[in-house]
Amino acid sequence: MAHVVEEKQKLLHRVRRLRGQIEALERALEADAGCIEVMKLLTSGRGAINGLMAEVVDDHIRMHMIDAGRKPSRGEAEAAEELLSVLRTYIKKSYDEAVRRWPSKSDTNLKAHRSAIPVHCP
Q1: What is the pLDDT at residue 28?
Q2: What is the CATH number of domain 5-99?
């Protein structure tokens, strides 16, 4: 996967950070933490996963889509950067879309949405 020890260590640090965030989420759920705390932990975990995915995709593009045996042409380098930019935007937008799907306080079905969340809200 990672082609350079330094890159591998960077990814492993991200995974360890993510593990810590997931363990914190588990502890919060076991302790019947409030919704806000749980949502904050979920958000940080999702951000960590998105960051890890962006790193892996970036590594893949740079290592496998651009010939490592020669310097890429300006067009190849620009195309790779454009693809990376689109992917980063996609990852961010998919997160933003998920957040937008949550009901607003004025939503008439808010009570139904709340009852579907199995977390105690103080």
Answers
A1: 96
A2: 1.20.58.1000
